[in-house]
Design goal:
It is a single chain. The protein has 440 residues and is an alpha+beta fold. The chain folds into four domains: 89 residues; 87 residues, 2-Layer Sandwich (Beta-Lactamase); 62 residues, Signal transduction histidine kinase, dimerisation/phosphotransfer (DHp) domain (Helix Hairpins, Orthogonal Bundle); 164 residues, Heat Shock Protein 90. It has 13 helices and 14 strands. It is a multi-pass membrane protein. GO terms for molecular function: ATP binding; phosphoprotein phosphatase activity; phosphorelay sensor kinase activity. It comes from Izhakiella capsodis.
Length: 440
Amino acid sequence: MLERLTWKILALELMLVCLPALVAGLLFGYLSWFLILALLALMFWHARNLMRLSHWLWVDRRMTPPRGQGSWERLFYGLNQMQSRNRRRRGELRQLIKRFRSGAESLPDALVLATEDGVIFWCNGLAQRIMGLRWPEDYGQNILNLLRYPEFARYLRERDFSRPLTLVISHDHHTEFRIMPYSENHWLIVARDVTQMHKLEGARRNFFANVSHELRTPLTVLQGYLEMMHDAEMSPALREKALSTMHEQSRRMDTLVKQLLTLSRIEAAPSFELQDKIDVPTVLNMLEREVETLSAGRHQIYFHIDPHLIVSGNDEQLRSAISNLVYNAVTHTPEGTRIDISWLRTPQGAARFVVKDNGPGVAAEHISRLTERFYRVDKARSRETGGSGLGLAIVKHALSHHNARLRISSKPNEETVFSFTLAPGLVIASTLKDEASGKR
């Protein structure tokens, strides 16, 4: 390894040049001229190497400096070492920046780095989607020119960042902004899409409001009749009517509480072991007898069942989904409606459950909301029939745990179809050829 350039090395180099000139001058005379020529040669050599260095710095595109001799060899070697260190440090810095950007892109939040005046000098991909920024086109732009919201401008101007700012950006998207000063005169702006949180909060408020409303009516009825029975003598007929109504309202509250508990239990567990062997034909045979009694001859009910189509899944949830769909069809369709309930295997080997009726149907604007909790198409009719608006919500969540989806289609005054399909992997046994039997 070469040692660094010192005065001793330069002095030794000067002596090596002047010593031959001194000997030649002593031998041939003209000592001063030989010394001058030797010094001029040394100066020319240094000038030549200096020009080579200048050419390499400003013209030559090679990464390594030119090779040298003597004192210039040490200088060129030192430049080469320094350049290697710089390249290594630049590589490490690039890797560090790359890891930082990769980590910033993986964050669930939009990040914008800006000066205290709002001038943007970096943002991640999520910021481009949430805030509508463009990179690198928006480099050097002021964020106030891109996010034109008076609340945001006031938030930056007041500089009270102890609390976040929530704005409604395009298409009812709620975005929460947090600003954290860092370094000197720099801001880290963090934005997060909180639309789902706002929807959940709204759903929670609606849920408690609906539960309170659903319980208030039967409790008011019970309280009114109890006060009548306590304050005055009642005739046997009125007493019988009061007891019947109180029993009906208490049954309604009991049904509501049971459905709420069922829905809560289904939603509480994100997944279930689908290992129960469910004899759906037997379940449907039991339901057939029950709905015949419930209908009391008001409907034409037909069951089409593959008696060997057995599936695996969560027994409680699948039974709940099937019974809710069947009971809904009988309860919420008018007298004289034909109801067809089928449990058959598809050509692809899946198990398909269908409930079809030819009743008045459901308008298109209601179909997408039918599985919302407490949603009713006709609230007055639902209360008359004792509906709570929770049945289809239970069906939706129960089927989601079986990787299935409730499909609803309706043609008013022609037919309404509620159906779901279980994947072939959940089918345990079935006839090789579907054996469908129609029963009334």
